[in-house]
Amino acid sequence: MRVAVLGAQGLLGRHLCDELNSHGHAVLSLDRAIVDLSTPDRESFYRLRDRLAAHDAHLVFNAAAYTDVDGAERESDKAFLVNALGAEMIARATDAVGAAVCHISTDFVFRGDQQRPYDEFDLPDPQGCYARSKRAGEDLVLRACRRAFVVRVGGLYGRGGRNFFSTMVARLQQGQSLRIDRCRQVSPTWVRPLAHQLVALCEHGEYGMYHATCQGQTSWFAFAETLCHVANELGRPLPLRFEGVDTSALPTAAPRPAMSVLDCRLLRLRGLLTMPPWEDALRGYLKELLAYNLL
């Protein structure tokens, strides 16, 4: 299969390219220098369409996004340009060349105030500009491309990532003292099995809305505790220089869902679910860091 990946230099995009290459797919990597989603105009559309046509793309992954949750409160137009209109442009260009699109969305589209995990049949209620822009992107993609996967993910971490939990090992090794949320419920998701899940889903061809995260739920504080426990088992102890605090002690410009756990119901019902428990994924991630002398 001939595949294009937008956001190929990002955390998920790089792992997607690795996974696709390992399966023997022909991969076209597209980054911001080639397609700038903050200017989703006609020229950008034609440039992307022609790139996809020249590659004879069968599938396009959109892993590019404006992901600064708090920054979106200050730059709401930019967030909507990238996450909504930019996503629509990708879907339109994909449809124009007869390919399928896999658009990556987020758990933040839900309000986060219910007690159980959210499945694909729960109604979104996004809070904050980032969440609203991502929800708008979902709708626009599904309208713009006849063959579309929209996949909500959350709690991502992995080697080379720049978000807080991707850098936790390095922060602890450096002796930083960390304050970590002990209240919000999440499904920490290693991007390597997520990339495998996304490719498997798209190879199967059942279009629609999906949730894809590691299985189970925890708090970020408990995640940090487990990370240190497993690192110790692997012979690479980390200093326990962190404390658990209430969400209210970590003020942010934009709200975060208190319940950020997704139920991967449709993957499960279709017999396509390959995501591991979050504890198993964390162990695999730390073994990978160990192999690269990063632990």
CATH topology: Rossmann fold
Task: Give the SSE string.
Answer: EHEHEHHEHEEHEEEHEEHEEHH
CATH architecture: 3-Layer(aba) Sandwich
User: Can you tell me the CATH class?
Assistant: Alpha Beta
Strand neighbour order, sheet with most strands = 2-1-3-4-5-10
Helical fraction equals 40-55%
What is the residue-mean pLDDT, rounded to a whole number? 96
Count of DSSP helices?
10
Strand residue content: 15-25%
The protein's oligomeric status is single chain
Residue windows where pLDDT falls under 50 for at least 5 positions = none
**In CATH, what is the homologous superfamily?**
NAD(P)-binding Rossmann-like Domain
Decide which structural class fits the backbone: alpha/beta
Strand tally: 13
Provide the gyration radius in Å.
19 Å
Main sheet overview: 6 strands, parallel
